[in-house]
Amino acid sequence: MEVINTLMETVMSNQVSIPLIEPMLDLLPEIPMLQYMVAFMLWKPLFAILICPGLTVGGITLLFFPWIERKLCGRAQWRVGPHEIVWWLGGVIQILADTLRFLFQEVIVHKDAHRPYFLQFPFLSFMIFLLPLLFIPAGTIVAIQTPYAIQIILALVCLFPLFILGLGWASNSRFAYIGTVREAFVYFAYEIPFIIAAIAMIILYGTSDPLLMASRQSIPGIILNPIAALVFFIGAAMATSRMPFEIAESDQELCAGPHVEYSGIAFGLIYVLCYEKAYILSALMTILFLGGGSGPAIAGLGDLSGVFWFVVKTYLVLTTLFMLRTVYPRYRLDQGLKLGWSPMLCLALIGLAISLVVVAVRVI
Amino acid sequence: MKSMKKVVGPEYNLGEKIKTNVYAVGVAMQESVYPHTATVFYPRERKKMPDNFRGFILFDPDKCISCFNCSFVCPANAIRMKEAPNKRYYPTVDYGRCIFCHFCIDSCSGGALKATKIHDVAYKDMDEMFTPTEEMIELPEIIREDKKYVEYEIEEDDLHLKRTKGEDYLFVDVPPPIQIPMVSQCIDRASCIGCRVCEEMCESGAISSSAENGMLRMKIDTDKCTGCGLCVKECSMQILKLERK
Asked: Which chain A positions have a beta carbon within 8 Å of B27's beta carbon?
């Protein structure tokens, strides 16, 4: 009993407070077991994993953002995008339908593929891509609070291309091979400016704890250091290998690059990988440059108001990231590398210098 | 050796680059909020085709004079003449071959062939695409799901869709072509070898032959002659000619 009591104390001491549903929570003690379950659900670390920024919001993002992206691009290009599935709602459940199709499709493993790795990598990489969500706070809700969260997120983000390389290697096909090599090239081109831009912001705030960062952004980071924000944004666009930087997966030459050999649910997982990546990177951008979950408090929501602002800002960044593909044509490999190694690196260093100047001014 | 001229792209300075980028992003934003979608949702609405659209070909046997012009002119060899129960020859169209040039309609001297705006007839296989005369007389069966029709309007380099409620008419009632009555005539009677090909060819029985004093004498009845010109094409001595009545 004592164990349960101490456990409940730790759980109750770190609850998500939502004034709006408090009257409902007061009724709960009359129902056995349910109060423990609700208490666990509203325990901040579990809430972060299960609801925001974890499973629920992440799932909604993966389910609806491909649709939103296709719809927006379609509208900008005078098309309609997905339409025929539930056409009176504009094809909202298109991705759900695609997922169902992928689930029932056979996963073909071709003769030359390295069978164990070929089947493992999509699932493994899906797991790894979810890990940074543990360290990303939505408002004040975070699963694991550490003063080195940004560094850990960056390290995990830098792991992503490794798994893409693994996919390409296990496929053992020429298109996958070329795509993999391109991915590796682009990886080196964007990763250094990307990390320097993040470091510039860490220097600017003097901390790498996301919660402290949010509290120190009375002026959002994008105004304090717009150059670092620009570099970070372009880096995020290159990291997600979406349309303007779709160098590794270029449809015209390489079919689908590293994941040309995949089919069925394995392909489905890979298809949402880049959306997952984009979600994490835009969440990181929100923390670093847009003040995380800070915003005018909404009455009655309590801790959820931070969650609300975090989600709104993240989705705004995500939409901007997706809108890039309607405006810019695809970069060639050499152009992408040139962009990464010269202008972006220079801009990142300038951003670092700006951060140092701001910190120096603040000290003086 | 003369140095080659290298083609280079236009040079922009930084200000112009920023300006063009901002303009492009602005257009994308504007289009995603108020899109100029150019898509026609086909089964539920139809694009309004112009009246002279080249679509499915209709046939009116009463006006046909069996002149074979349509089948002669067809560049894709899609039109074959088939003998009908009333011993006349009527066209049949193989839509597997037809290229919808509508030369047949232009060349039809009696105005028996007519163009429609139907462009969405479905066939199960290639054999079914061969359309006999009976199926060309009436409009094919169409299930109309369209509630509106769409017209494209171009204003200041921008394309707009104008949607109007109601069904677009698919059959255009074109006035019949101005007919010049022609008649077949023999221009060199002395050269006739009496092969009687023209008599066999004539659909309307206007050419008759009679033996007089051991000589074969051909006669063309100008009232019966429809001016189809078949005898002119087939005459082995090439002494027949179409002339205005």
From this structure: 76
Convert A108-147 to b/e letters by CB count within 10 Å (16 or more is b). ebeeebeeeebbebbeebbebbbebbbbbbbbbbbbeeee
pTM for the whole structure: 0.76
**Nearest residue of A to residue B25, measured between CA atoms:** A327
Q: Measure the CA dihedral B228/B234/B239/B243, to 10°.
A: 10
> Is A75 close to B32, i.e. CB distance below 8 A?
yes
Pairwise CA distance, residues A63 & A335, whole Å: 33
- CA–CA min distance B157, chain A (Å): 14
pLDDT in tens, A127-140: 888 888 888 888 77
How close B89 comes to chain A (CA, Å)? 48
Contacts of B36 in chain A (CB under 8 A): 78
pLDDT at residue B1 greater than cutoff 70: no
Shortest alpha-carbon distance between residue B35 and chain A (Å): 5
Could you give all domains of chain B from N- to C-terminal order, each with its CATH number? 45-165 (3.30.70.3270), 182-244 (3.30.70.20)
For the four alpha carbons of A12, A16, A22 and A24, in that order, the dihedral sign comes to negative
The ipTM assigned to this model is 0.72
Helices (H), B157-217: 197-201
Please report, for chain A, the start and end positions of each structural domain, with discontinuous segments joined by +.
105-363
CA–CA distance, A238 with A246 (Å, rounded to integer): 8
Band the pLDDT of B75: cuts 50, 70, 90: very high
C-beta atoms of A76 and B35 within 8 A: yes
Cβ of A323 and B24 within 8 Å?
no
CB A241 within 8 A of CB A180: no
Contacts of B236 (CB under 8 A, 6+ apart): B193, B195, B197
